Amino acid sequence: MRSWRRLSRKTWERELDDEMRDHIERQIAANIANGMPLAEARRQATLRFGAVEGAKEDCREQRRGFWFETLWTDTRYGVRVLRKNPGFSAVAILTLALGIGADTAIFSVLNAVVLHPLPYPHADHLALIWTDLRTAGQSRAPFSGPDMMDMKHGSHLLSEVGGIWAGTAALTGVGEPEQIKVGFVTSNFLSILEVPPAKGRPFNAQDDVRGAAPTIILSDGLWRRRYASDPGIVGKTVLLGGEATTVIGVMPEHFRLVFPGDASVPPDVQAWIPFRDDLARGPRDLNFLRVIARLRPGALIPQVQSELHAIASRLRAQYREDDKQGVDFQILSFQMDTTREIRPAVLALFIGVGLVLLIACANVANLLLARASLRQREIALRATLGASRSRIVRQLLTESILLSVLGGAAGLLLAWWGIHWLLALRPKSLFLMDSVDFNFTLLVYAFAVSLLAGALFGLAPAAASWRANLVNTLKSSGKGFGGGSAGSRGVLVASEVALGFVLLIGAGLMIRTFLGLLAVDTGFQAEHVLTFQIAPPDLRYRTDLDKARFFVELQRKLGAVPGVQSVGGVSHLPLDDYPNWYSFYWREGAPPQEQNTALADHRAITPGYFRALGISLVAGRDFTDADDSSHSRVVIVDESLANRTWPNESALGKRIAVEEITSGEFAPATATVVGVVKHIRYLQLTDDGRPQVYIPYPQSVREKLSFAVRTSGDPLSVAGSVRAAISKLDKELPVSKVRPMDAYVRQARDASRFTMMLASALALLALALASIGVYGVTAYGVSHRQNEIGVRMALGASHQDVLRLVLSQAMTSIAAGVAIGLALSWFLTPLLSGLLFGVRATDAATFLAVALFVATVGLLASYLPARRAMRVDPMVALRYE
Length: 881
Prior knowledge:
- The chain has 27 helices and 23 strands.
- The protein is an alpha+beta fold.
- Strands 14, 15, 16, 17, 18, 19, 20 and 21 form an 8-stranded mixed sheet that branches. The protein has a 6-stranded mixed beta barrel with strand order 3-4-9-6-8-7. Strands 13-22-12-23 form a 4-stranded antiparallel sheet.
- It is elongated, with a radius of gyration of 37 Å.
């Protein structure tokens, strides 16, 4: 068939030649009949008919499949052109590969983290619901059990409502004791996510009633690691918290919980157990449940929000506790809320790589303009022989797109490497990046970007050819439209500098943010501190007194370990991902309207905790072993709470109402303030957080305790001795999260470090590409003006005059780019405000430093070709001309 088509084309072309010849011969015959000599008749017939090749091209365009034929022809011609200019092709392809590769790599993150649905079936119908405690100004608070159940039964637009609270539990029996992360859930929680266990069955309503036999569903990782992928695990019992618990299922391999960071639901929950309690009968002001819901088909978030407002209004009218707290409900898309914190950073990076790609396109456009000067006579001759302007433009755009496709192919290799680099650098908090992959979507995106880039940077030489004056070009000695005007090249350089300037400003602000995080006063000293976590099982430590005695003895033994300077325990370690404990507080005697209006983080601690973590005691005393359940209630508050509650007064001896825990039940209590300590950053480094209340552990026993052990040297050097001391007290007691305290601080900085590194890498890449562009344009200008420079020097211009001339023209474009970049940055950087800490989005020092830096780099990039201009020999230049 190919041979037949080829033969058909040849026959068609032969017939076309015959027809063109026939038209001209008829006109010649007519001219001769009118009395013209033969030679004149042939000349007039040829002039009247016009360009034969142009007429043939008009006929060819009417053929079916003509566009495919010319595309194939143009592509083959473009390949030959690129092969004849390997140096130019390599530079252009590498430039495009850098831009397209970076863009594709960051798009993989955007696609996985922001655009791709959450890893649950029908994820668009999932929602998170928060309690809005309007009295306390807390809009993203958990639910209480009664509020969740009342909302569930009162809603007609929600098909299912469920809750989770993340905690820990000791897993004993087979193997070494282990402290695992456990999700305490309603029986329908996993069913709402529509992810059934890979083995066994999900929870049912009978598993969740009070007094039901304990059941558990394991994660795939825990099943494989601890139970060696035992195929008969379903139906067996394990010891969880010392209680025999039946395994009823194992979740799929890639299942994980995906919740917002402030929900305190870690993604690596290792097991799920039902509450086995009547949540509707719990305290209405005890907010601890993170609630998810599935919308009914056709229900929209705004409609459900209106319904929830109405339900909350009824509950406030019905229950005094809800009315005092100003309870309302807020529903958000699961997808949007989960990516709420990371979305701005990813979008900013994606815009950044888009700017890098534009700089790469501007660079290649400048290369094509310079290269076109060598082809101007070729293109003029093609036009003279009958090629239309549109046909020439199409040829040039085909060459540009071919170049960009080759650059895209090379960019895919760079993107593959870049994705692996991103995954290696990603912080633990960006767990959604685990789904980043080199897939078909990425290939399609890279191809589309390549086509768009080719069309974009191919417009400059194509437009230059469209405006060309063919007569002047054929008369000239070679300098014509092909190189584009100096003004157009200057505009491209200014654009590159402006875009690079914007990226450098963003990187500078992120660097200032990270430096601010390094310098932030956390309120504690993390160096030389070892931390670990212990949760005594209720079956062996049945009473609060048993647990308190165990920890007193453990702290005494740890204090005797060589190298240990001080030891203390706390219910919630700073910067840990354990669910936060916060509640209302008010001064004794406060009127009802002032109660339930202020929230504070509550921490149960043992004596010595402040010394171990280096927290300064501002006034009063630390707790002692005498501050136990048999003595009067006491608390220590931080400076923030003291100044807010008793401004210009001493807090010592004052009494406040706080929430304490007795026998696992939360209850309000009035306590005396015996000390004031420095406020510390508990939840994140970029926010002061709520005020803090510290309660003696024996007076408010929690299910687990984290210890801080200050050492004289490397904290990990005493880890073995610490484990041995714990084992002597209880060999079945698991120890978890053994790590230095400064590891928590580093982890809190990881997200900012990751963003800073990516922003800096993109900014440096943009600066390098812009510098190459400045150098290339200046070098091209020098080579293009050698004869002019020779004339100037022959007429008396000095080397310094030539240097000043070249640099002034180059620096004009650079200065324009810096000015445009300043204006763009002034309007765009406020969009980064949510990512910044300790620096304003329009920080003058950063703007000035970047402007000087860009100007210096631009000056260096243009100085090298300017020096070459100084060495031009006037005689050689004039003889060449």
